[in-house]
Amino acid sequence: MAGARQLTLTVVADYDEMSRLAADRVASVVTAAPDGAITVPTGETPLGMYQDLVARIQAGALDVSHTHIFCLDEYLGVTPEDEASLTHWLIQAFLKPAGIPREHIHFIPSAAPDPQAAAQQYEADIAALGGLKLAVVGLGPNGHIAFNEPGSGPDAPTRVLDLTPRSIAQSEAYFDGKAEIPDQAITMGLGTILGADRIVLIVSGERKADILHKVLEGPETTDVPGSLLRRAGDRLEIIADQAAASHLSK
Ligand code: PGA
Questions:
Q1: Cα torsion angle, 94, 95, 99, 100, sign
Q2: CB 12 within 8 A of CB 239
Q3: Which residue of 107, 178, 185, 209 shows the fewest CB atoms closer than 10 Å?
Q4: Can you give the pTM of this predicted structure?
Q5: What distance in Å separates the CA atoms of residue 245 and residue 247, rounded to the nearest whole number?
Q6: Residue of minimum CA distance from atom 8 in ligand 1
Q7: CATH code that applies to domain 21-195
Q8: In what order do the strands lie in the sheet with 184-187?
Q9: Rounded to 5 degrees, what are φ and ψ at 19?
Q10: For residue 141, which atom of ligand 1 is closest to its CA?
């Protein structure tokens, strides 16, 4: 679109540099708005970012004690105590070592008696804190953002939805054969994520090269929910390492 403000694509050498830069983005938002709300992802991709952030926090270089953290997604019916839950993963990887106070952690209501109503309340909780100052998200191999699976539109709210077989297979790493993988999840909506003041999409590795090409150079389509992030224009930064960027034409 003529005159549309452009997203930023930052291509870095490798995973470590992507992680450091993503941690820089989190640190600058948290420093500018210490009591603001942010959302951060689970998965392999953000692990390095969390290690970097925790090192800064433990060295006293970053204070997250006033930051509100909203979880992005969770399997339906599991609790943060479930070892296979995404929330448990996030607690271990980041929330606990970072010392985020429990009252500032907003668990996605995956085990609420009425998850749909609880999802609406989750949106209201975000709004009550002034909206998301930052959403850091990863990119699923099928183009999903959080658990906004293919078919999710740009206005999709926080909600319960069915997982695709591909996402269920991807979840095997969390469940490790210990329990049956749920076939439904609750996810922060793509619309909710698109409402953030800043969005940082982190992408690493050759295995993401094809889907990143579709996200950036294919049509904006609900078939590839990541492509809809482009609607955020200059509020979106994609930080990709060279391997992930290797199928981009420019
Ligand atoms: P990954 O997951 O970081 O483990 O590749 C990303 C995602 O599915 O959102």
A1: positive
A2: yes
A3: 178
A4: 0.96
A5: 6
A6: 140
A7: 3.40.50.1360
A8: 73-75, 184-187, 159-162
A9: -65, -45
A10: 8
